[in-house]
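Hi all, long-time lurker, first post. I run a small reading group and we've been trying to get comfortable going from sequence to structure in the token notation. Rather than ask abstract questions, I figured I'd post a concrete chain and ask someone more experienced to write out its structure so we can walk through it together at our next meeting. Sequence below, copied exactly:
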Amino acid sequence: QVQLVESGGGSVQAGGSLRLSCEASGLTLSSYAMAWFRQAPGKEREFVSVIGGSTYYTSSVRGRFTIFRNDAEKSVYLQMNSLKPEDTAVYYCAAGPTQAAFERPYRYWGQGTQVTVSS
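-- Answer (accepted) --
Happy to help. Here is the structure in token form:
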């Protein structure tokens, strides 16, 4: 049974930092592209970043967020710096066979972790 479990969310002030973690079980992490998506209140879920053979970021987080992985630890991380109130959302980890900036290819999803950034 595949499970993705996110952690590391919380409440911070604008300009602060958080590191999200996603721990995977039941799959060989190195065989998957791993992505982060987020969903703000009243909005659709949107792509944030993905790591596979390379890394990609949505433009609004490029230069502030860094995605990295440790396949031996079966974990992927999202380091978020210079946080802004508009980064407030539930952040989801996802695993899929190919890198993509949309949801469909991702087969497995975590339950999400809340990030709240206050001004």
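A couple of things your group might point at:
The mean pLDDT is 97.
The two ends are 40 Å apart (CA to CA).
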